[in-house]
Structure prediction request, 451 residues.
Amino acid sequence: MDLIPALDGRPREGGSRPALLVAGQSMDLEELAGAAGAVAARIAGMPAAAVEASPTLETIVAVVGALMAGVPVVPVPSDAGPLEREHILSDSGATVIHADVLDRADFSADLAPDRIAMIVYTSGTTGLPKGVMLSAAAIAADLDLLAEAWDWTATDVLAHGLPLFHVHGLLLGVLGALRAGSPLVHTGKPTPAAYAEARATLYFGVPTVWSRIAAEPGAARALRGARLLVSGSAGLPVPVFDRMAELAGHGPIERYGMTETLITVSGRPADRRRPGWVGTTLPGVRTRLVGDDGGPVAEDGESVAELEVLTPTVMAGYLNRPDDTAAVTTSDGWTRTGDVACIAPDGWHRIVGRRSTDLIKSGGYRIGAGEVEAALLAHPAVEEAAVVGWPDADLGQVIVGYVVAHGVTGSELCDFVARTLSVHKRPRRVELVDALPRNAMGKVQKNRLLG
Prediction:
């Protein structure tokens, strides 16, 4: 299976832009095919290839070269510490490879669609990262489903500045563009100025990126010419959506997925935007809500429970961890996401957060942290908010908020939430902090808030 048919040598449709523009360096498809072919010829037969995933043309050439050779790609985070890096390399058995964009060679291979194309390591919030094995067929299927859902064609230009060691930045943001045949502008860093200068039709970002762009009216207005803005990797705060809609003329659509399943739910360009909701399932994907007793939970737009997914884009398993693979797979073949969600009668999904940290059980109530965070963010003085459940001998857990805010006290914010949500959803206390702990994709690391 050819993941990137655009490298077959045929002219690309659309404008005159180079296929890749990464941090100011450009490369066309012919150059990419030749440079990646040289990598493929050099590493063919290797068990796995580790790529130091910095935002450079060399990273993309190395990744594409390994895919051409049928060698599983292991992206190594550019900011990985020594322990994480050593674990990824030893667990995968991968050899670090490098690419020279000036090398050229032709290469072809007859590749099976069920081969493992990538081993992407999870963030490791509950221990050492696990290697998620993704087949070429699963990746191709997901990219094609997203291209259809987003009307993504070779006439588009994609711009983003996301890291190239996660699903969002690498699979969607690089392989997705190459598979669709659309030029890619990788801005190096996802700054508002760089996004404004990209002149793209399609933009990818995480909530932190959109928040920073929304805070700079000139940059946000420069995106009015874009056809579609997409947000993912974490929930987009409603105030950020509203500000982007005001300045850019349209708010970002959201999509949902995880490394183990790839993207399974998304909004569509023609949809009426629903801030705080991530859309409906992609074709061929099914979802369901499951309660603590293993029984079904009503899809009424209010009830929250763990989300399970049945999808053709599911991983082949965790590398070297059959027990962990079995733990996230139900007896009837569905994947336990570990995420808490609600589903409306019309199929729209709202993701509350992780079951381990975002489903708070207090005094017999089940409370989604995301709902309380949205209420806090509705206060004009609040810039960021995270809500967790602290252990409590009486109630089981109590709601505690952490916010970045100015000109307001914690008790005033508690009272503000109590005026908009049920009393049992009111935080018992709100702590003012300078910043929330986040990982490279902008997700708040709530385990660090819990100590």
In short: Residues 34 and 104 are 4 Å apart (CA to CA). The chain has 14 helices and 24 strands.
